[in-house]
Amino acid sequence: MNTLISRQPIFSADDGIAAYSILCQAPGGAAGATDELANTVLVRALLGVGLERIADGKPAFIGVTRDVLLGGTLETLDPSAIVLRLLETVDADTEVVDACSSLAGLGYTIALDRFTHTPRNEALLSSARIVGVDVAGYDAEELTMHVALLRPYGVEFLGQNVHDDAAHALCLQLGFRYFEGHHLATPESVAEQNVGVTRARALRALKLLRDAASKEHDIEEEFRRDPALSYNLLRIVNSAAVGGQGVRSISHAMKLLGRGALERWLSLLLIPQGGDTGVEREKLKASLTRARFCELLADSGSRPLSGGTLFLVGILSALETYYGLAVESIVETLDLAPEVAAALTGRRGPFGATISLVAAHQVGDWDKVLMYCEDLGISEDALTPAYLDSLAWVQERLDDLAVSAQPAAARAS
């Protein structure tokens, strides 16, 4: 059976993507899988999937237990492509300290997860290059003191559980280089029910609409590439002028609206929007990955589902997770089909179970993943290929957008 695998972003101080934290689970086993099994599964998964494929060429932080550290198989992985994150549960005994020292000598980067400064743990600092600090566990004064104790060791700091701007600002002031949780784990609340739309995307969609030779499928693809564009399409479809009619998919919404009205609406979206930070790009990636992952699971269960509806449900649920839009407000604003509304508000029905499965997979909650697989009749073997295909699909579309956004002269050179 396939190994379950997912990833979470690690941000740099300027909100760029510095690395990805790789989450991995043994096939058929939930959270209680043994360390011996995890040792084999981890390396086989990364070698089989390919670090380039799962981490987009960024360094891959992989969590290691004691047995993984001492098992010898880590040395089969490229030291320039990974960071060994020693989990906080690993006791810093002599064997562990020696193994870290040996791996560091071979060029591997050692990171200490949620590090607590104790006399016993101090021995790990000579091999570590990165120290993770659970920011949520300290007040400002305690965090400042903790960093001051560690600074003489010349390590770089990774802020973990950075959930708000105040914590992020303090970490920046203290010289933290890496961040987890910033704006993604707990999105800032959004006062108005609009999400910024990429100007280049709106322009490209508008050009397609004005070209009589453009096929409906090509136009739909433009909307599927941008959660904000999809959401605003649904809002306009449900306006008083159009009259919502239980929208079931993006293609259904386009048919209800018609090309003429869609052209006029898109013209209003060409006003430049906010900045393009790494955090915003990662929100977009995560949102599209969720929608595509949902869609790819449509025929995997015991009961076939509509792929278009699953894509729509995935997009709308991602708006709550990554953009802070309340799902109740989304449902109130849009006249959605009953099964779509039920999936969003209560995770009810097979569409709701599919969202729950994919959302759990994205954060590595493997117990829930396996539970929803059983409920839906989906084989675990279907998940990893679908997830990796989703990542590739999203990257292809983002690359396509980057090319289309370049001036014509730059593309021609």
What is the topology?
Layout: E1 4-12, E2 17-25, H1 35-49, H2 51-55, E3 60-64, H3 66-70, E4 82-86, H4 94-105, E5 109-112, E6 130-134, H5 140-150, E7 156-160, H6 165-173, E8 178-179, H7 199-210, H8 216-224, H9 227-237, H10 250-257, H11 259-267, H12 278-296, H13 307-323, H14 327-333, H15 338-346, H16 349-362, H17 366-376, H18 383-405, H19 408-412
Parallel strand pairs: 2-3, 3-4, 4-5, 5-6, 6-7, 7-8
Antiparallel strand pairs: 1-2, 1-8
Q: What is the strand tally?
A: 8
* Helical proportion, percent range: 40-55%
Number of helices: 19
Largest sheet: 8 strands, mixed, barrel
Numbering strands along the chain, what is their spatial order in the largest sheet? 1-2-3-4-5-6-7-8
Strand content: 5-15%
Terminal Cα separation, in Å?
A: 47 Å
Can you give the mean pLDDT?
A: 81
Element pattern in H and E: EEHHEHEHEEHEHEHHHHHHHHHHHHH
Structural class: alpha/beta
Give the low-pLDDT segments: 30-37
> Roughly how many Å is the radius of gyration?
23 Å
Shape: elongated
